[in-house]
Amino acid sequence: MATGTVATGAAATGTVARIRRYPVKSMLGEDLAAGVFGGKGLAGDRVFAVLDDAGAVGSAKHPRKWGPLLSCRSTVGADGTVRVRVASPDGAEYIAGSDELDDRLSRLLGRPVVVSDKPPENGLLERAVPEYEGGSPRAARSAAVTDATGTAITSGHVAAGTFFDFGPVHVVTTASLEALRRRHPDHDFDARRFRPNVVIDTGARDGFPEDEWQGRRIRIGDAVLQVMVPTPRCVIPTLAHDELPADPGLMRAAAREHRIPVFDMGPLTCVGVYLQIVEPGVVRLGDPVAVEG
């Protein structure tokens, strides 16, 4: 099917407003004019992660331990390598996988770490427990432990063979962000805080259209994706991102507006959806988006 067409039986939903990837997990990423979506998600997305000697995968979901990663930016070079620019006073750039980068990040984080493109088996993923209702499942909250940083955390694992938390593709809509912004104008619901791969411009649509997509297929440009589950939110959107300042109350505000059931975990604060690839393809800015079925 040519780009710019909508399949028969599909309902036009919007257009692609933004494409982003994050070559190193929990670092700042880069905007794209087009991206290839295949079996492992958006090409070049989360292909590296920072690991420590305790088996943890670096994630700003535990800000006291890994938050400084958000002061770094990762981009994919023209030669296919991932170049990481550390937001340090010297402004130096390092190649992912180099000893120089490992040394720089070890100093930044205050303990030995390495940057790797090889996901560890059962890689540990730690999350700070939000204090507000709907920030984490009640069962997980009751099982939380306080670690050496003084943070109450829950622990899980990254998706097998990847550095993804769950689904390989994450999408948010302008309708959801605008609904939150309109109801809580004192908070900054910039899409970048939610670290999506695709932002879909849904025009004048109101509310949270993603809620209606569960289990359905969506054609985005040349690719077809299956919606897996709403995206439960953590503390990351409240943290500083690039020029965006920290907004500590942002997720508490979102929790007041949009808590929906996720699997058997009860109602959780969600913004966006996780998807998996059904038919690989290229997605470009301005491409049509349509929900099938």
Report on the structure:
The protein is mostly beta strands. The protein has a single domain, classed as Beta Barrel (M1 Pyruvate Kinase, Domain 3). The chain has helices at residues 63-66, 99-109, 138-142, 174-183, 250-257, and strands spanning 10-21, 30-32, 34-38, 41-42, 49-52, 72-76, 82-86, 93-95, 113-116, 124-128, 145-146, 152-157, 169-173, 198-201, 217-220, 223-232, 259-261, 267-279, 281-284, 288-292. The strands form five sheets. Strands 1-14-13-18-16-15-20 form a seven-stranded mixed beta barrel. Strands 4-3-19 form a three-stranded antiparallel sheet, with no helix packed on it. Strands 6-7-8 form a three-stranded antiparallel sheet, covered by helices on one side. Strand 17 and strand 18 form a beta hairpin. The longest helix is centred in the middle third of the chain and has 11 residues, at 99-109. The chain is globular, with a radius of gyration of 19 Å.
Task: Please tag this protein with its features.
5 helices, 293 residues, globular, mainly beta, 7-stranded mixed barrel, M1 Pyruvate Kinase, Domain 3, 3-stranded antiparallel sheet
Topology:
Elements lengths: L9 E12 L8 E3 L1 E5 L2 E2 L6 E4 L10 H4 L5 E5 L5 E5 L6 E3 L3 H11 L3 E4 L7 E5 L9 H5 L2 E2 L5 E6 L11 E5 H10 L14 E4 L15 E4 L2 E10 L17 H8 L1 E3 L5 E13 L1 E4 L3 E5 L1
Parallel strand pairs: 13-14
Antiparallel strand pairs: 1-2, 1-14, 1-20, 3-4, 3-19, 5-9, 6-7, 7-8, 10-12, 11-12, 13-18, 15-16, 15-20, 16-18, 17-18
Produce a short descriptive summary:
The chain is mainly beta and 293 residues long. The chain has 5 helices and 20 strands.
